[in-house]
Design brief:
heterodimer, A: 178 residues, 6 helices, 11 strands, 17% helix, B: 686 residues, 22 helices, flat
């Protein structure tokens, strides 16, 4: 424990900026949190249309009252084991910043829990695991009682540019002749 | 601003908006006119004869308005026109502008050659402050409106070159300038007001048949249009940057020229050099619909709506259609015994469908607006280069999404420039080559296979393959001796930094144009094809998908997924017999259909979907075509034909190969619309 706190000395100002309200949800046994201001709405289950030739974590697109939004499977994105859909499976619509604009994207989660106020003193930096576990999209680890909530920096999880590159990465077909 | 000046400005704008049937507007006009005599009396600086004339003008106008209100006049529009003139006079009198002139005009109305007192016309070239607060939105409206008026004036002017006697056209141009003058006066843009006034005076002379619209005069008015456009641009800049409106260079010279022109004197050589040295040029807008370009300036049958609102309307109607379809599906089973309910339901669905058609049509505009600009461009280019070019416009009524029209304008300009500048030869060269001295450029728009196709065809010198290759080798784009197909060679001209023009002119030849064209077209998910034969000319075709259009689609099923194929790209569908099928190296599948051997594409393999069957004889083949290319798409099932609205999948998914968009089906789910050319490309590359 003392190791990890030494390894990541974050300036005080950044730590204090992390306190606030989080929407928490579950993926398997792990509890995650999203900054409440990034969340647009929670919708139940909608039929998802698969997008061909995209990475596996892109589940497809759904029709949200006339607007077409992309849905990303967080389990798959975090390389966790896939589970069948239950009646608690939800899509959380978040707004991510992409190229200076707000873009609505859906994320599939196992279950939505609650909205929690987590003060900044209860938020720690994530421990480092070397290269086996990516932590750069983790805002911090929120301690609520005995439980730990993994607070996500959703902009980094769904790095807009990375998703936008989907087509190029998968197509691999230079169309132009020169 | 003094109160009298304010009143006259208000009058000027009120009369522009007034309609003989709009009682409220007329009443307002009457109200303003009524206070003029009193204000004239209060105005200290007015000379007595001037004051008397103003008062009289106001009273006459006032009684005219009364007559219109009381329907006491035979021709209300003519009376309103007279009121308009009276108010214009009031403005002039107040400005002390042309008092002298006007008095003379009155005594001898036909005498337009009366010396225009240049002193009284002192050209006002100072920076102008922008109006503040609420008026700023008026300025923005003015910018848009003025542009529209200038566009229509330009189109009419080009037609006037052929029919200089056409009163309707002269009137159209006159009205455009008149309206701009009025609003500019109201917003206190003196420069543009003066310009419009000067141009209007010439046109007024022509209207009264006192002045012939020679090509020099028309050239001058065209220059005024350009100048006015430049001014509008600088006003726009000023609005954006919150700076005063700058002085327009060359305005003073043009104004002097215009005023001299109004007196009937020959225009100064300095301004009209281009006109004087130009050979006979003929440009013709073959398919320009009459009503469009010469529409009256104050067309009150249109309402401007922001595209944002339009988009949400279209979205909501789309949702309505879906909701209606769902309700319909749910209820049809229940109401079998109730003909009344069934009838109402079907009536409702008919209404929603019509509503959807209507809203979709609202965004569609004919491509004519862009085409009309090209006539002017070709005309100017021809003059500059000393060429004779006839521009033929076909399919201007082809409708496409408004956004596309705007995005298409730039590439078209580049390509027209290329055709006129590099494609068409000089008249003597053409004659030497055994061709008509008059070069022909054709701009054609049409709907083809679910795409908009815009073709630019010229009968010029065509592309020189050898020279392109030489240049490309020189620039290091290709290796010596590299084998390239004809298309590949032609495509090289889209490479940045490659220009085959021997001389760099001020219009093209810097090797940036075609590169920009390709980028723009690709950004619209379009494609460019070139066909050319040396000495005969070239054809460049731009194909654009209809991003926001309704298309007729065939819904097909592959596994659990449903896809939509544009009907226009489908030739037929069939269930293949095993003797029709053959393979190449036991991989590449082919199907023999009516003597043609066509490649088979298993959609489920391409899109990694689990199909219901992998046996081709159990599934269906849809024969699709893209131009001359054909392929068979293997699907599980055909679900039926349906009209769908293409929805962009959003920028986040970028440009998915083989998919042109999504459509929301009756049950609210999204189905992907397949992009046939993209699919064929994809097949070729995998």
């Amino acid at each position: 424990m003392s190791n990890s706190t030494l390894a990541s000395a974050t300036p005080a100002s950044e730590i204090s900026a992390r306190g606030g309200k989080y929407l928490t949800f579950a993926l398997g046994k792990e509890e995650y949190g999203l900054e409440i201001l990034k969340v647009r709405e929670i919708i139940g289950w909608l039929d998802i249309t698969a997008l061909p030739r995209t990475p596996a974590y892109v589940r497809g697109v759904v029709n949200l009252r006339g607007q077409v939004i992309v849905v990303v499977d967080l389990r798959s994105k975090f390389e966790m084991e896939a589970t069948p859909k239950t009646d608690q499976t939800c899509i959380i619509v978040v707004e991510i910043a992409h190229a200076g604009r707000k873009l609505s994207t859906g994320i599939v989660v196992d279950r939505v829990s609650e909205v929690l106020e987590i003060p900044s003193e209860n938020i720690e930096d994530p421990p480092t695991f070397g290269t086996s576990v990516a932590t750069d999209f983790i805002l911090g680890m929120g301690k609520v009682g005995d439980a730990v909530k993994i607070l996500l920096d959703i902009d980094k999880v769904l790095d807009g540019d990375a998703v936008a590159r989907i087509a190029k990465d998968t197509s691999g077909t230079p169309v132009s002749a020169n | 601003m003094s109160s009298l000046a304010e009143t006259t400005e208000r009058l000027a704008s009120a009369v522009l908006l007034a309609d003989p049937h709009d009682l409220a507007a007329l009443a307002r006009l009457h109200e303003y006119l009524a206070v003029v005599p009193q204000q004239v009396a209060e105005e200290a600086g007015l000379a007595a004869p001037l004051a008397a004339r103003m008062e009289q003008t106001a009273r006459t106008a006032s009684s005219l308005v009364e007559q219109i209100i009381l329907r006491d006049t035979q021709d209300a529009s003519a009376a309103l026109e007279a009121v308009c003139e009276g108010i214009a006079q009031l403005q002039q009198l107040l400005g002390g502008e042309t008092l002298q002139d006007d008095l003379q005009k009155e005594s001898a109305p036909s005498d337009t050659s009366s010396p225009l007192a240049t002193a009284a016309h002192d050209v006002h070239v100072a920076e102008e402050e922008l109006p503040k607060g609420e008026d700023l939105s008026l300025v923005q409206d003015f910018i848009g409106e003025a542009r529209g008026h200038l566009e229509s004036a330009e189109a009419s002017l080009l037609k006037l070159e052929e029919q200089p006697e056409d009163q309707e056209l002269i009137n159209a141009v006159f009205r455009a300038f008149h309206t701009i003058k009025g609003v500019a006066g109201f917003l206190n843009f003196k420069q543009i007001g003066q310009l419009a006034h000067a141009a209007e005076s010439i046109l007024d002379g022509a209207r009264k048949r006192e002045l012939a619209l020679t090509s020099q005069v028309l050239e001058m008015i065209l220059q005024s249009v350009d100048m006015a456009k430049a001014m509008i641009r600088s006003i726009e800049m000023a609005v954006q940057n919150h700076t005063p409106v700058g002085i327009q260079p060359g305005l003073a010279a043009l104004l002097t020229e215009l005023r001299r022109g109004a007196t009937g004197a020959a225009p100064d050589a300095a301004v009209s050099t281009t006109a004087a040295s130009a050979p006979a040029v003929e440009t013709r807008a073959a398919a320009a619909p009459e009503g469009n370009s010469s529409a009256p300036a104050g067309n009150d049958a249109t309402v401007k709506v922001s595209t944002g609102r339009l988009d949400s309307l279209i979205n909501m109607v789309g949702e309505l259609v879906i909701a209606q379809a769902m309700v319909n599906q749910d209820l049809t089973r229940l109401v079998s015994g109730q003909p009344r309910v069934a009838r109402n339901l079907s009536h409702l669905s008919k209404i929603t469908r019509e509503l959807q058609d209507l809203t979709m049509a609202m965004r569609m505009v004919p491509i004519q607006a862009v085409f009309a600009k090209m006539s002017r461009l070709v005309r100017d280019l021809a003059r500059k280069a000393g060429k004779q070019i006839e521009l033929k416009l076909t399919g201007g009524e082809t409708e496409l999404d408004r956004n596309l029209v705007e995005a298409l304008a730039d590439p078209l300009v580049h390509m027209i420039r290329n055709a006129a500048d590099h494609g068409i030869e000089l008249p003597e060269d053409r004659v030497r080559a055994g061709k008509d001295a008059m070069g022909h450029v054709e701009l054609r728009a049409s709907h083809q296979a679910g795409n908009i196709v815009v073709e630019i065809r010229d009968d010029g010198r065509g592309l020189n393959k050898k020279r392109i290759l030489a240049k490309a080798t020189q620039a290091g784009l290709i290796q010596d001796g590299q084998e390239l197909s004809e298309q590949d060679i032609f495509r090289l001209i889209f490479h940045p930094g490659l220009s085959t023009a021997e001389k760099v002119t001020d219009v093209s030849g810097r090797g940036v144009g075609m590169d920009v064209v390709r980028k723009n077209v690709e950004a619209l998910r379009g494609r460019i094809d070139i066909a050319s034969s040396e000495g005969q000319g070239s054809t460049i075709a731009i194909r654009l998908p209809l991003t926001l259009a309704v298309i007729d689609g065939l819904v097909v099923k592959v596994g659990v997924e449903r896809y939509i194929l544009p009907i226009t790209s489908i030739e037929q569908s069939l269930q293949p017999k095993s003797e029709q099928l053959s393979t190449l190296q036991s991989r590449g599948e082919m199907c023999m259909i009516r003597g043609r051997l066509l490649p088979v594409c298993r959609l489920h393999n391409l899109f990694k979907v689990k199909p219901t069957t992998t046996d081709a004889c159990q599934s269906l083949l849809v024969l699709v075509q893209d131009g001359s290319r054909r392929a068979c798409l293997m699907v599980d099932e055909l679900l039926g034909q349906q009209q769908v609205v293409i929805k962009s999948l959003g920028e986040i998914t970028g440009n998915l190969p083989g998919v042109s968009g999504g459509a929301i089906l009756g049950d609210g789910t999204i189905s992907l619309i397949l992009d046939v050319p993209g699919l064929i490309d994809l097949m070729a590359s995998t």
